[in-house]
Amino acid sequence: MTGEREADTLERDFQHTVDADQRIEPRDWMPDGYRRTLVRQIAQHAHSEIIGMQPEGNWITRAPSLRRKAILLAKVQDEAGHGLYLYAATETLGAAREDLTQKLLVGKQKYSSIFNYPTLTFADVGVIGWLVDGAAICNQVPLCRTSYGPYARAMIRICKEESFHQRQGYELLMTMMGGTDEQRAMVQDAVNRWWWPSLMMFGPPDDASPNTEQSMRWRIKRHTNDELRQKFVDMTVPQAEKLGVTLPDPELRWNAERGHYDFGAPDWDEFWQVVKGNGPCNAQRVAHRNRAHEEGAWVREAAAAYAEKRARGLDRLAQQQLATGGVA
Ligand code: FAQ
């Protein structure tokens, strides 16, 4: 009985902290469900960054100039960095990175649906920067105020880099749109292929999103999937006009009454197929990640051997210092 009362008090205090917009830190008490939800979301996010290196990585060796190659290399490296910050955030919740990596490799944990589409031309690199990073920013800026401290702090740095990524994508597309008719057609074709998958990145509609309500109560999520999708559309339509491309949605129009753009519904059957592993590139992405993991085994072994050697050396040094009374 006392235990139950204690648990109630802990839960009430926890919710007070969250409602007061204060951060929960790793050593604070938290409900098991809160911890589980965070590990699920942050791990999926980390996996998305790591798998998300593949579609653009596909173009590094074929970038049309040294400048474009250097920019693309830096962007793809940033994505690896984001994955690492995020795995580190899950570790503060007691998750083991090896365990999460394993779950990604065997398909037990998800990553964003968007990375299961192919990158057919170099215009796709620009469109990923513009639309995919643009959608990522819309979704992730509110996460800088998410209730779990380490996740919120990781997101601040990630968002700064994502904004830069979005601008490089838009700049690339502006350059292509100022080029030949063929280049303009490549941009339009890439926009046609990436628009709907970008809208799907925000997750299912609110009435089909099982996690939103609780995640909003815990202030892990600050907005619903549909709210963020609307924000993205409102932000992107004027950018598309300036760029000179058409967004492939006949229902897209300004609604003065709502003060927002109306837009059509993505194909949710396609979304769930991709989430279930049946998208155009799911098998390829996971197979590639498994191959890279196997090929990187020697790096992990070497790093572990070095860490062990260093720890032994430090241990010896400490013993010597003890023996000499701290005089080297
Ligand atoms: N893809 O109840 P909800 C990036 C799953 S990073 C696959 O609404 P929730 C950077 C969902 O997990 C992109 N699965 O779920 C970059 C759940 O399944 P579960 C990643 C999805 O968590 C740019 C089920 O459906 N960003 O782009 C998707 O409340 C360029 C029901 O959904 C993040 O991860 C999806 N799109 O809301 C890198 C941001 N949507 O777990 C390279 C953080 C939903 O119960 C190049 N995450 N599902 O089995 C979030 O904000 C949320 O987790 C949502 C989903 C909004 C994604």
Automatic annotation (TrEMBL):
GO CC term (a single one): cytosol
One MF annotation (Gene Ontology) recorded for this entry: phenylacetyl-CoA 1,2-epoxidase activity
Gene3D superfamilies per UniProt: 1.20.1260.10
Swiss-Prot/TrEMBL GO biological process terms: phenylacetate catabolic process
Signal peptide per UniProt: none
UniProt-listed NCBIfam families: PA_CoA_Oxy1
The protein's name: Phenylacetate-CoA oxygenase subunit PaaA
Annotated source species: Longimycelium tulufanense
